[in-house]
Amino acid sequence: MTTVKHKGRAAVLVAGSWGTALASVLAGNGYDVQLWTRSAEHAEQMNRARTNEKYLPGVALPSSLHATTDMQEALRGAGLALFVAPSSAMRAVAKQAAPYLEDGTLVVHATKGFEAETLKRMTTVLSEELNRSAESIVVLSGPSHAEEVIRKQPTTVVVASADLQAAEQAQDAFMSTYFRVYTNPDVVGVEVAGAIKNIIALGAGLSDGLGFGDNAKAALLTRGLAEISRLGTAMGANPLTFAGLAGVGDLVVTCTSQHSRNWRAGSMLADGTPLEEVLERMGMVVEGVRTTRAANELAKQYDVQMPITAELYSVLFANNSPKDAVLNLMGRLKTHEIEQLG
Prior knowledge:
Belongs to the NAD-dependent glycerol-3-phosphate dehydrogenase family. This protein is an alpha/beta fold. It has 15 helices and eight strands.
């Protein structure tokens, strides 16, 4: 039997499905993991039953993973702090963590979205609240469902940072026999791809819910990738990033799997279920909804065309019907596929 080397303490904030899955990866790699949640009831359930019944029911948690509501205790002595709060809560969680975060702690985040009010990326939000250089922060992204990671099914992701040493530290922390990790210096590209693919996944759910076929899905993914690339490069990303794990990889997995919250939400919207009811029935954050609003504003700010995003915005926030949105997309003026041609 292989002995896992003890790597010290790690803090994971917060205890949703993705946070719990990544906490399990770290625990399996030799970390004593403190998994922070706001709910005392939630923490007690995880510590007593050794499962996270709220988000990942029926899957045993490692013995070296402990849930806590004490932020100071969670971060005490942590060599790594992983932030997995929803984009809407990231600033508040970071503000609460800041007084207890030790100077040498590696900061990683695995949240896919923008801050709605400021349109800022999550590395920027963390940098501001933690008083850390944005260049030192690592983002983890890529095609990865928590439901599969927690069951140790083969998964490949990317960690991005302007600081190669920080990225490699994160790579070493998360790499395992079932969780393969690549490094990438393009933080902007990885964050933009991770955020915008959720919008396209909403569209994929709508398409499937309306009964459209594989032709429509293929078109949606391909032109969705064009929108991701268009906005990302305008914001300073490397176009090659969008052909990799954070781009096309994550886009495919999120748009084709029923594990995807965004796909499920889009599918429910297709039958006329109001957005408020969809979100209530989901019971978890659907990042694509907030991201659609943010991306619609970013498209204006950077003067880029994002027709899929614009039509989804009209469905979510302007009471347009999904079928009308599809007709609008199909009825657009003819254009070239290769961007440079016009």
